Amino acid sequence: MTKLPIEQLRAQAGRWMQQRPSRVTADMLVGQQRALQAIAQAQAVPGHYAHVFAIVPAGCEPEAMFSAVAEQQQWPAHDLHDWVYVVNPVDETQPICLHLPAGSARAVVERLWALLDTEPDNRAPLLDSLQAQFNWPPLNRYLQSISDKKFEDLPGNELANIVVTQDSKVAWHYCPRVTEADLFGEIRLQTISGTVSSELHLIQPGALLKANGGTLVIDAEQLLRQGDYWQRLKYILKRGEFSWQLPEQGAFYAPQPVPVHLKVILAGSRALLAQLRDLDADFANLFPYLADFTDHYPAQLSPVANYFQYLSYLQQRVEHRPLTDDGMHRLLTLSSSFTEHQEELSLDTLRLIQLLQEADAIAASEHESRINTDHLLQAVSNDQQREHYLAEMSRQAMLENQVKIETKGEVVGQINGLTVVTMGGSEFGEPSRITATVHYGDGDIIDIERKSELSGNIHTKGVMILMAYLANLFAGKDPMPLSATLVFEQSYHEVDGDSASLAELCCLVSALSDTPVRQALAVTGAIDQFGNVQAIGGVNEKIEGFYRLCKQRGFSKDQGVIIPRSNQVNLHLSDELVESVAAGEFSVHVVEHVSEAFDLLMQCPCGNATDSTKDTLFGRINKRIRQAQHQEIIRRWWQFW
Predict the structure, then answer these.
(1) Distance between CA atoms of 259 and 261, rounded to whole angstroms?
(2) Mean pLDDT score of the chain
(3) Of residues 336, 337, 499, 510, which has the active-site annotation?
(4) Which of 21, 43, 81, 369 fits a disulfide with 99 by CB distance 3.0 to 4.6 angstroms?
């Protein structure tokens, strides 16, 4: 067991500040090498079956991120063209699709008008000039079909509609809102003198045609909300051809299909990826490349100097005041706390933007030219003030003893477990009183939460693991003649997770050995069947919750928490708590095995699990078991007699 010094209670940003370069270049893609490499590989592979699924964390700005990727990688334009629909000289309802060199559509249409305005006998020079300037087979074929016609000879009232004009500098398109019109485009209808019809100018392209020849990025969640759109997109990608959805009402109007040659990137969550892989057999074939964008930067594996490029991007994005040196130091500490890991820094763009915007506003209100530590801490405090109303109400119930939580003294069969409560969209840590009682029985541990159907599956598993640990110690050869009941007191909602199993085991050992537990210590941790203490989640919220209760009641100088040693790297505790640890008012202990927690909580050595002669925890339990076994033998003899 170890009592942690204050240096280990949060990330040490000082060593990161030493790596701060004198000059930085803004880069929002720092730390995304894995995803960038996947996209680059996919872009280099042609064909209909080489598309990408990009996992985009919630804190990213997808459009800005993919714009940066496209600029950095210079995404290729596989087959970039302008797309023009021209009137079909034979059938007005079936316009002809022409693909022209990128950027040439307007000039070609103007030359077509000039051609049709010229008498057929005088068109030879114009035709030769047009074919010489735009020597394009589809255009040449169309010129032959109208070489002897005037505009009046063509059906309808229009010559052409430039559907898409391409710019080779922007060879990609983002579709954040997926509707029929936004993704695929539409053919609109008009009513003239009671007749419903369509014309060239009513052909409206969607993102798919605008990106044709380049790259199309689609919001995957938006796409999959409409199953028909997903099926249609797959069909287009397989065939390499886009056909217009015919109007449901009105006259027949069927523009010529458009050949499609583009790279598609679906941007979504990891959960959505798992569903697609499980439920859609076509997905793995069409989207074999995974671009896994991350929301954290591994400072222990990558140069921290690069992270300052990301912070420079944030400054350009927010346009906030520059930070002082102490402000930058604090920003690194807060960034690391967002990841809940002392060796990682956050790439959660939106969360960092919100923090910097509020800190900048605070600095502006104080007429400061730079953001310092106080401004950042005030922004964090403001956020906590907004979010922690329910936590304060819950703590008030404990202070008024409406919810009974002991933080002083010693009690047999009672312990303070640490939990994370999610309520009304808020999440906070608080202690929970766990109690255990022992009675004569068959060795069963009755989990009242499970009996009352308030136990989740993982919590039930945790209780079964601690039962296995106790059975391995005390029921290896003979049946266990004692049973116990275990419960979370004053808990009226479902209990789940295995993070209370260490506290529950300590509580049971206290009840079995009739040894009191120190109520000044609260416990969290999972265990395995051999008594090893394992990591849990929400460790910072749990510690802060118990600390604040102790502070409001008044410190007794021996209060603290017991956590798994493997969670030490996750600690990011507040300045206030760290100062209390430094002053000796509060402590954080880490343990690797349950025996260490027993020593701290019950201040009695464990001893040998098979020795009942010594005054140890296990000796007391063995002695009680033997007494119960002796009573069982007498009872059986009496019944036999």
Answers:
(1) 7
(2) 91
(3) 499
(4) 81
Cα–Cα distances in Å, from 244 out to 203, 248, 586? 9, 12, 70
pLDDT digits (tens, 9 = 90+) for 73-104: 998 877 788 999 999 999 989 999 998 888 88
User: What was the pLDDT predicted at 641?
Assistant: 46
Cα 39 to Cα 61: distance, rounded to the nearest angstrom:
17
Q: Which of 186, 202, 197 is nearest to 250 (CA)?
A: 197
Residue 259 has pLDDT above 50, yes or no: yes
* 381 residue type, one letter: S
State the CB neighbour count (10 A cutoff) for residue 635: 11
Give the integer Cα–Cα distance in Å for 437 and 76: 71
Q: Is 542 known to be catalytic? A: yes
CB 187 within 8 Å of CB 247: yes
Query: Per the residue annotation, which of 394, 542, 574, 587 is the catalytic one?
Result: 542
How far is residue 363's CA from residue 372's CA, in Å, rounded to a whole number? 8
Sequence-ordered list of residues with C-beta below 8 angstroms from that of 249, at least 6 positions apart, any chain: 189, 196
What are the two backbone dihedrals, phi and then psi, of residue 558, each rounded to the nearest 5 degrees?
-120, 15
User: 440: which 2 tokens?
Assistant: 């004569």
Helix (H, G, I), strand (E, B) or coil at 432: strand
Provide the 10 A C-beta neighbour count for residue 315: 17
> In sequence order, which residues have a C-beta less than 8 Å from that of residue 400 and are 6 or more positions away?
none
Can you state the angle between helices 349-365 and 373-387, rounded to 10 degrees? Answer: 110
Structure tokens at 165: 């004009």
Query: pLDDT per residue over 320-347, tens digit each?
Result: 999 999 999 999 999 999 999 999 999 9
- Please state, in angstroms and as integers, the Cα–Cα distance from residue 108 to each residue in 59, 88, 170, 191, following that order: 45, 16, 22, 30
